[in-house]
Amino acid sequence: MTPDYWDEACRHLAKRDRVMKKLIPQFGEARLQARGDAFTTLARSIVGQQISVKSAQSIWAKFVALLPGPSTRVQPAALLACAPEALRAVGLPLRKVDYLRDLAQHFEDGQVHVRQWTQMDDEAIIDELVAIRGIGRWTAEMFLIFHLMRPNVLPLDDVGLIKGISDQYFSGEPVSRAEARELGEAWAPYRSVATWYIWRSLDPLPVEY
């Protein structure tokens, strides 16, 4: 699934931002892709916290190989049935093992309101998700971008976004959150799309969860 607003967003960004005008054509027809499964998306986000795209993909591949079923969809019950020691063996730190198991328990117990998310605004969804152990604002924002495909998310806690802004707009000089937020205002209402292209400028591997 690809967002229906993507082409319009690219035209909008290219008109308003000189860096985006140069960056967007470099990646041709590449688009944000959603996997369509809420639990898998959140689990991938936890696995990918504060590590590179390449490292996250490597660990994820080993992780799903432990579980029954297709690699594109992880079932909460299957994760809970997997021994913590086995999860640790694929490269997951104990903290992330605990987070993944807690996430799975929330889904198994019906403590998340998956069917209501499409009607909720961004901040309301973030509030619900950060109540789950191990899911902070960054992970909730990744969910908004990659699962719900919300178009205007600016994840200021993302180290890749801050580094990419530094490289692309400030000649590598350190950038504050306030400066990044101000820059992001020019990207509205398509800040998610601009963020995706900033990520791609750092790592040619498509960013996905």
TrEMBL record:
GO BP annotations listed: base-excision repair, AP site formation; DNA alkylation repair
Q: Which GO terms describe its molecular function?
A: alkylated DNA binding; DNA-3-methyladenine glycosylase activity; DNA-7-methylguanine glycosylase activity
Q: What class of enzyme is it?
A: hydrolase
- Cited SUPFAM superfamilies: DNA-glycosylase
Q: Does the keyword Ribonucleoprotein apply?
A: no
Give the protein's recorded name.
DNA-3-methyladenine glycosylase II
**Cited SMART domains:** ENDO3c
Cellular component terms per the entry's GO annotation: cytoplasm; protein-DNA complex
Q: Does DNA damage show up as a keyword for this record? A: yes
The alphabetized UniProt keywords are: DNA damage, DNA repair
InterPro entries in UniProt? Alkylbase_DNA_Glycosylase/TA, DNA_glycosylase, HhH-GPD_domain
Q: Ranges for the HhH-GPD domain?
A: 47-203
Q: Which residues form the signal peptide?
A: none
